Amino acid sequence: MRVSADLSLAREHHAALVEKVRTHLRSSPQIDVQALKALTGLSRKFVVPFLEHLDRLGITRRQGEVRVAGPKLHGT
Predict the structure, then answer these.
(1) Which of 43, 45, 58, 64 could serve as 70's disulfide partner, Cβ 3.0–4.6 Å?
(2) If we measure between CA atoms, which residue out of 12, 8, 3 comes closest to residue 51?
(3) What is the DSSP string of 9-35?
(4) How far is CA 34 from CA 31, 45, 46, 65, 75, in A?
(5) Per-residue pLDDT of the chain (76 residues; tens, 9 = 90+)
(6) Does pTM top 0.85 for this prediction?
(7) How many Cα atoms within 13 Å fall on the side-chain side of residue 69?
(8) H or E segment to which residue 46 belongs
(9) Do the beta carbons of residue 53 and residue 10 sit within 8 Å?
């Protein structure tokens, strides 16, 4: 799955990361770079483009420095 011009993920890894974000947002109203780093163990270099990717997909929506659930949080 193409995440950004410089980042692609295997479909199964993409799906697992998306599910981690969805699970987090079901129990917490927001997620930020630090929270996603803690959830995944990934560095900021990968977390920031991934969050931007989730914004484009509608899974999250950026509000300042955090992301909240987007219209497709529960979608496919």
Answers:
(1) 58
(2) 3
(3) --HHHHHHHHHHHHHHHHHSS-B-HHH
(4) 8, 12, 12, 11, 25
(5) 999 999 999 999 999 999 999 999 999 999 999 999 999 999 999 999 999 999 999 999 999 999 999 999 987 5
(6) yes
(7) 15
(8) helix 44-57
(9) no
